[in-house]
Every structure is written in structure tokens, then in C-alpha cells.
What does this fold into?
Amino acid sequence: MLSKEKSLNLSISFGVFLFVLFFQPFQLRHFDSNNLLVFVAGLAAIVFLILVIIRTFIPLLLVKYGAVDEESNIPAFLSGFIMLVVTSLSFIFYLRYVGNVSMSFYNVIKVILICLIPVVASRLYDVISELKQQNRMLILEKQSVYEKMGKLEEDQLNRTIEFGSEYGSENVSLVIADIFLVKSADNYVEIVHKQDDVFHKKLIRNTMKNIELQLRPYSNFVRCHRTSLVNIQHFERLNRNHASQWLKLKGFDEQIPVSRQYLLRLKERLHSLKG
It folds into this structure.
């Protein structure tokens, strides 16, 4: 943290040095080139010293003597105002008594504007740092949520679900993770599942709508076609040609059609699965 502050202070000071050297907002013609460099370096040194005092030294003192805790900071507007006032007064004194520059109202305004550079630059740095920190925290929270969701989904996948026929004549119990595909077959629904590395198909007299409602609590199932409902945990790839699109599931040779009506929802689910 201190090394970053040091780099920031040096960068801002060097920026002020270059600005004054190249634009020469004050009458410094009485200096030769070498003395001019030394004089302008003095302005940069003032900026660096004030930045160190206000941004590093004073906060450390306040923490040391218990005025604030380590997580507290001097309010941004207050530190910025103090920095602007102290830097401006130091510049005016240095220009007047070291550089023999007449301190007219116009020159004072230029001093204040130049002294706004470290204030604005340091504030921008703080804001960007805070945003980066918040972004890192959000990423960690997101990862934590995904991990929790993954554990919940894993628990769900290991559950057994029972499918029944419309008239209750037969019931089929299957582990959620073993189900690959559900598709309509006239007045029946065909459930493709895998057991002992072998695919099996179960026909039950029911409707796709009823089966979809039964599987709705399990987020890994998504409708990809009016005739097909897939378990995206077994997704391998999405294929397309000029006329149609279809899904390929791991180890399953059959092409599963994908209609435009369900394509966007399918892609969203696949994206969340990868996330």
C-alpha cells in the first residue's frame, strides 16, 4: 500500500514538474536552463512533500494516537481542501521569494489551478481504487454464490424424482443426474436416462407440460424445443447450419432440435452454467 502511495506521489509530482516546465505559466525567463530545471524541480518537491504529509504521514499519526481507526480515513473533501490551501500557499511563497515572481491576482489564480492537479489526481486515484476494491468484493461474493448454488444443484442432482402416468397406472423413479432428455412421443413422454453407462428409454403416458412443471424446481433442465426438454449438465455443444440448430449431449448420439423460440433461454442457462 505504501509503495503504491509513493508511486502515486512521485507520478503526480513529476506531472506538475512537466506541466510547469513546458507551459511555463509564470515569468521565469531570468533563469538559465539549468537553474530553471532546479527551480521547477523545487515546485515538484513541494507537491511531493505535501502529498506525503497529508496522504501518508497525518493518517498514520491519527491512527497511532487513536484519533481514528485503521479503516477510517480523513474525509476526501477535507483532505483535498487542506492540500489545495497548503500547496497554493507554499507555491506562492516559493515563487515570490525564491523565483522573484510578482504575485498578481492573475498569477494567484494560475497557482490555484495548478495546485488543483494533485488534488484532482489523488482523488481520482482513490475513487478508482475504491471501485476496484468493490469490484473485487463483488467478484468474491459472486463466486461464493456460485459455489453455494453449485452445492445446492449437486444435492438436487443426487435426488430421486418419480414420474407418474396420467392415470396412475405406472410410476418411474429416476435419479435427477441420470436423466439426459425428455421428449414427446405422440400421447407419451419418452425419458432418456443413463444407468451403468448405458442409455435407457422409459415411456410413460403423460404430457410434456406436466413433466416440465414437475422438473421446474431443478434449474439444470431447460426446454429447447416444443418436443424436447434437456438436462444441460450433460451439454456438450450447440451445432447449427443455415437451416437449423441442434444440441449434442455427452455420449448421446441423437441430435436434439433447438427452436428459435427457446434459443435465447437455452443460451442464458448455458452461460450461467459456465459462470
User: Anything to note?
Assistant: The chain has six helices and ten strands. The helical segments are 2-23, 33-64, 76-97, 105-157, 208-215, 260-274.
